[in-house]
Amino acid sequence: MIRIKICCINSVEEARIAIGFGASAIGLVAKMPSGPGPISDDLIKEIASLVPPPVATFLLTSETSVNEIIKHHQRTNTNTIQIVDSLSEGTYAQLKSALPSIKIVKVIHVIDENSVRAAISISESVDAILLDSGNPDLKIKELGGTGRVHNWELSRQIRINSKCPVFLAGGLKPENVRQAIETVRPFGVDVCSGVRTDGNLDIQKLENFFKEVLQISMIKPSVL
């Protein structure tokens, strides 16, 4: 089965809806330089505390220092940390040593062949990588939530060579998620704006998205 992560969850009710449809994980977006869906650390903590196991709760943090990432996690108590930018201080090994029971997911913004090399290298140090559309080198960093599709052939190269599971994000929606899965064959898919209308979860879009993923998940791997 392809895992489904519903990102940009902004309330307990949205978390309930996403989990009710069968989400394996929910994304809780903290303060970001740009993009949709940021909520307060207090609300992230409240939502995370109410999510039943085995659903994963992802804290999306833009902190780049290992010490600050640890402090951010301590304020929110999620079971997974999604690091959306490059580390400026410390190492992934130090982070995992400090938080041994917490899963670490690193976002790779798929731009070019350099992204492929970076992803393959980082995949040896984290629990999963998440391939997204964005550009951390802009004056105002794009660290996710762009609603844009990136080059899935590059993502496929990363998935083939990765040492850890790969999630695919970036402009996914009911109309294209089947093609995305057929091309990349990721461990899981991540969606935010593709299942929303006017910023709110759209039940019909959500249902259609899960339906498409379920149908492609039932096809034998040799067909993919």
Task: Provide tags for this entry.
alpha/beta, single chain, two-stranded antiparallel ribbon, disordered C terminus, globular, 19% strand, 224 residues, TIM Barrel, 8-stranded parallel β-barrel
Terminus-to-terminus distance: 13 Å
Task: Tell the overall outline.
Answer: globular
Structural class: alpha/beta
In CATH's first tier, which class applies? Answer: Alpha Beta
Order of helices and strands: EHEHEHEHEHEHEHEEEH
- Subunit arrangement of the protein: single chain
Measured by DSSP, the beta-strand proportion falls in 15-25%
Q: What fold name goes in the CATH topology slot?
A: TIM Barrel
Could you estimate the helical fraction of the residues in percent?
A: 25-40%
- Domain module tally: 1
List the topology elements.
Blueprint: E1 3-6, H1 12-21, E2 25-29, H2 41-50, E3 56-61, H3 66-76, E4 80-83, H4 92-98, E5 103-109, H5 113-122, E6 128-132, H6 152-161, E7 166-168, H7 177-184, E8 188-191, E9 196-197, E10 200-201, H8 203-217
Parallel strand pairs: 1-2, 1-8, 2-3, 3-4, 4-5, 5-6, 6-7, 7-8
Antiparallel strand pairs: 9-10
Helix pairs in contact: 3-4, 5-6, 7-8
Question: What would you say about this model in short?
Answer:
The protein has helices at 12-21, 41-50, 66-76, 92-98, 113-122, 152-161, 177-184, 203-217; strands at 3-6, 25-29, 56-61, 80-83, 103-109, 128-132, 166-168, 188-191, 196-197, 200-201. The chain is of the alpha/beta class.
Could you describe the 3D structure shown?
This protein has 224 residues and is α/β, with parallel strands linked by helices. The protein has one domain (3-217): TIM Barrel, CATH 3.20.20.70. It contains 8 helices and 10 strands. The chain has helices at 12-21, 41-50, 66-76, 92-98, 113-122, 152-161, 177-184, 203-217; strands at 3-6, 25-29, 56-61, 80-83, 103-109, 128-132, 166-168, 188-191, 196-197, 200-201. The strands form 2 sheets. The protein has an 8-stranded parallel barrel with strand order 1-2-3-4-5-6-7-8, surrounded by 6 helices. Strands 9-10 form a two-stranded antiparallel ribbon. The longest helix is centred in the C-terminal third of the chain and has 15 residues, at 203-217. It starts with a strand and ends in a 7-residue tail after the last helix.
